[in-house]
Amino acid sequence: MTRAEENYIKTIFHLGGATSQLISTNAIAEEMETKPSSVTDMAKRLADKELVNYVKYQGVSLTVKGVKTALAIIRKHRLWEVFLVKKLDFTWDEVHEVAEQLEHIKSEKLIDQLDALLDFPKYDPHGDPIPSKTGEFKERDKQLLSELPVHAKGVCVGVKDTSSAFLRFLDKNKIALGHTITILDKEDFDDSLRIQIDGRELQISNQIATNLYVKKE
Amino acid sequence: MTRAEENYIKTIFHLGGATSQLISTNAIAEEMETKPSSVTDMAKRLADKELVNYVKYQGVSLTVKGVKTALAIIRKHRLWEVFLVKKLDFTWDEVHEVAEQLEHIKSEKLIDQLDALLDFPKYDPHGDPIPSKTGEFKERDKQLLSELPVHAKGVCVGVKDTSSAFLRFLDKNKIALGHTITILDKEDFDDSLRIQIDGRELQISNQIATNLYVKKE
DNA sequence: AAGTATTTTTAGATTTGTCTAAAATTTTAA
DNA sequence: TTAAAATTTTAGACAAATCTAAAAATACTT
């Protein structure tokens, strides 16, 4: 498996998951910041290797083998993210770029031992679940903060947007995974929220609330 | 810098160090298990980037910039080796292959933090010195065990051959870095040695003795 | 010093992954 | 339902890194 192939597989999983829904070459090209014609070329190569089903003019979906491959890469990516934050004091907005490189390192022992060093973490620094060695992968029970009714309480368990800008905003406002958030009030006009977190009161925009995952209490 | 370029720079340093001695394309090809014609191509590319001096039909040597690059890669390689052994329980014969991959990861913060996590180690698991961030690099004062006279004492500080076969031999015979070795006797016929190590007596061949570095006491 | 052997380079081909521009197909919409 | 718009594929080109086979340069040897 080449690095490029791995990146395509990961992107296809990101866009379509394990479903058989066909993902267009255009969508993949957009996500990977490349051209549709390049995607077509790669789609054929991946189909030859039985990692994807490719239907001309329709798109691609991952085969069982492709899903397995994708989960292995995601497992590596997220374990490395945990390592960077827990052991090397990276902030959660710094990890992605380096993990993108580390995820391609080939060594089963390396990943198994890293998993052990980190105490077999279940979630990465953004709250996303880490697939097990065998590819088990349970999406956490969660919902967007914006979907909670007034007076409801939830524990912050993840972020949808993982951009540096958003993550740094959260750091600046001391909003971190594990914190309990209570919705004090909703503003109909702009859908902004008044929340309580960590004993503080905060006014947050709808854009923030639609990118924060919470687990209802 | 591409991965291939980095590997060439590393090999040239390995064969010629920081000297201006020209290394033949043949020697490089042999070391890298590739063809001399491929080395010629790369030599031109590296010369374009001012990483090597290339003299047609004579060979290449590293420029100052090339040496700096080589030391940065070696620093990364050796720090990762320490990490694998100290944190992930790799044995010293398992680290090379994985470190070959990890040494190409690009992130200054990653290496700085890794260095700190490992407590700023001075030597890698094979006893080779780790260049500092600024490229400082002092070869340890050492000599081959085979060069020691009878009754001399030395501390084991490194290995010349880093093959799995040799390293596993050392493990099996409980010869490790830091152990004190005393030469009890030399056999003229085959240059084998009778040594004392860790309270035990051991007969070792000349081939072993010419691949073990000690620091005379 | 000339001729052979060795080393090194050049020329041309291959693979991977990418691109642009043009052709083919599918979708949308009047 | 047919023309226009959008999407997707093909064709041809390019760069990196490699190879083989042949040519060129250097080194050895008598």
Describe the structure in your own words:
The structure is a homodimer of 217-residue chains. The first copy, chain A, has 217 residues and is an alpha+beta fold. Among the domains of chain A are: 3-62, Arc Repressor Mutant, subunit A (Orthogonal Bundle), CATH 1.10.10; 143-216, Roll (SH3 type barrels), CATH 2.30.30. Chain A contains 8 helices and 8 strands. The first copy, chain A, has helices at 3-16, 25-32, 36-48, 64-88, 95-102, 108-117, 164-172, 206-209, and strands at 52-55, 59-62, 143-144, 153-159, 180-186, 193-197, 200-204, 212-216. In chain A, the strands form 2 sheets. In chain A, strands 3-8-4-5-6-7 form a 6-stranded antiparallel β-sheet. In chain A, a hairpin with a 2-residue loop joins strand 6 (193-197) and strand 7 (200-204). In chain A, helix 4 crosses helix 5. The longest helix of chain A has 25 residues, at 64-88. The first copy, chain A, starts with a helix and ends with a strand. The model of chain A has no long low-confidence stretch (mean pLDDT 96). Chain A binds chain B through residues 84, 87-90, 94, 97-98, 101-102, 105-107, 109-110, 113-114, 117, and chain B through 84, 87-90, 94, 97-98, 101-102, 105-107, 109-110, 113-114, 117. The structure holds a DNA duplex (30 and 30 nucleotides).
